Fold this protein.
Amino acid sequence: MKKSGNGGDKNKFKELKRRTQREIRKAYWNYIDSIVSPPDLNKPQEKPNCMKRFWTFIKHKRMASTSSIQTALKTVNANIQNQISKKTEGAQNVRLVAVTKTKPVEDIITAYECGQRHFGENYIIELEEKTKHPRIQAICREIKWHFIGHVQTNKAKNLAAIPNLYMCETVHSEKLAKKLNKELEKAGKTEKLKVLVQVNTSREENKNGVSTSKVSDLVNLIRTKCTELEFKGLMTIGSFDHSLADGVNPDFVKLLKCRDDVCRRCNLKVEDIELSMGMSHDYEHAVELGSTNVRVGSTIFGARDPPKQSQNQEVIQEKEEESQQYQENNDSQHITKATDQEEVLENNTTRLRELAI
Ligand SMILES: *Cc1c(COP(=O)(O)O)cnc(C)c1O
């Protein structure tokens, strides 16, 4: 067979390519317009026919994603209620936090319009961008944000400034609690910020949260010294390799034990201490064990795209340089900086681990 390599074909191809690019540009700008007001497809169109088809396509896409988020939310809520109804003792209120990290603003709005109010994010920059988004500001007026990622002390200021921040679930050190308190004081918020203490129940080396033996001290500090923080409970992420087939999740059991310990040592009642545990694959199990706050992402919004390789490389390089820098400072005996250095190294390990998830 003869390949289409002659001049006429080439020109035809170029012309088609130009036309396609023109249409894509037009479609892009129309899409931007439509975010403000979608066109009425029944009205006579000035636009060419292909535009009409394009709009039908977009409309169906949107309807498909709306209905899948709506269905998933209904299912997750029903599953939670089902677990609660099996309980024979004690009332249990469970809050569903819809985790929208890496997901677009449209998904947040869709879930909000289905009645969801609590949303979770784990990167400050992403949370800042989403809270500032004009559509979120216009539509999601009663949104309640949960911060569920690692907070570096130098980002406490950014966190304190987030509008509609309902809860920080990841207070992991006295240093962070004090800094967050100070930044909230400066920001002059009228309400206290609800916080959970993040507990490292899995004792993994890449530590996430405070070790179980230090939880009560941290809770005491928050309750007695941090006037801008309101202690609400405990949170764990847990190890990622536990399979439900192996029975009860040991991280959840440890968090329950930890709560008993805090009750005794801080003179609190069990029902005064919330437990944030359970994600997409194990939220029902977590509710069964007594969780009051589940953080569910991919089951509602679909699987997340893995972070882009180039972004990973960038972060990894940046973190490695930072660690190196601190190592060097350490070598030159800046002893007062030792805890800072430890924290930077710890933060970096956490960040690298998050990227690997
Ligand atoms: C991403 C994330 C979740 C949600 O994970 P899914 O498995 O998608 O439900 C929950 N908690 C934390 C801390 C997270 O970072």
Summary: The first helix runs from residue 7 to 36.
